[in-house]
Amino acid sequence: MSTTTPPTRRVLVFNQYAKPLSEPGGTRHAELFARLTGWEHVIVAADLDHFSRQRRHQPDPHFVRVRVPGYSGNDHRRVLSWIGYDHRALRVALRQPRPDVVYASSPQILAPVAGWLAARLRRARFVLEIRDLWPDSMVAAGYLRAGSPLHRALKALERWLYRRADRIVVVAEGWRSYLVAQGVDEARIEWVSNGAEPADFALRPDRYRPLRSRVPVTGRLVVYAGAHGPFNGLDLLLDAAAELPEHTFVLIGDGLEKARLVDRARIERLRNVHFLDTIPKQELAGILGDADVGVHVLADAEIFRLGASPNKLYDYLAAGLPVVTNCPDEPHDIVLAADAGVAVGPDELAAGLRKLLGEDTATLRAMGERGRRYIEEHRSRTVMAVRLQQLLDALVAPGTDRTDRGRVPAATPGS
Fold it and tell me: Which CATH class name applies to 9-195+380-395?
């Protein structure tokens, strides 16, 4: 009796800012799609690293790099970079073998437009992934005035994309209600959270220089690893460092606010604060557990009350670090459900850190272990790849109509 091997499916991923594991930055798609079975994936990404301004040319069989114009702020050059990416990504889509699914991710908001067009031209299914609630997040950041002609145009584009997606993937469960309020049929919305793989976060002092050898450490070592942008609330972290001079604070990463933050720490003589450049994901995973506490901090913005799915929070927990978070709703709930740290209000970061840093070492380690188990069971890349696999498999399954394809069994954020 012969068995027939199911055909390999193809998915083409549009994400201007995607990174392979060998580079610092967003590795969500590299990690998720590599865990699928029966699917070949190609990720179309920009050749320019937004923060370092360096061109990336390292070969990777799952990445196609397209050249984009550079930019450093939020002016017209940023939009030109988006347009340049969309044009070249669409050309890649027309040259690649025909995909079964085009999977386009925000931000930026124009990439899904190119993804939809590629799907139409190649007769493929179109999945829209929402990783940032544009344009509302631009309003919250002060880059866009609510009710302005541009804001109204972008809201119309947002709704246009929602209507044309076969499925919409959200990284935060709280965004489901937002999309429904925008007129989206809830049956087309799926939740595939960000996450981390605890097995990847074992300390590797034999391969990477330990974190404690990179900076002088007194007291406990507190780490922040992530973007240094206007949404990240890092002034709150510097305020906390000023109140807790007996402990050491390390900020790893880059962003539009980094130069100003470095200047502030220098002017205020915060000698317990140290800034490190971005570190490739594999190296960061091998050194993160060398700290004592991880900090998840965000600015107090209404947009975050709709939901958030922060990679850095999952990374800390996967590395076995107890965590302080000042972000309401989902991050707050995760830390409390895992019993892995302290969750405080948006303006209470210093108090939360003071409380957690006052715990004894055994208590901190027990918190870290509970956090690691929680991520492994509920928020690992493996768990989320299963949800993505179910979504894609069902979306292209024969004998089902468009309205039924891709439906993943309902799940709560903690399940």
Answer: alpha beta
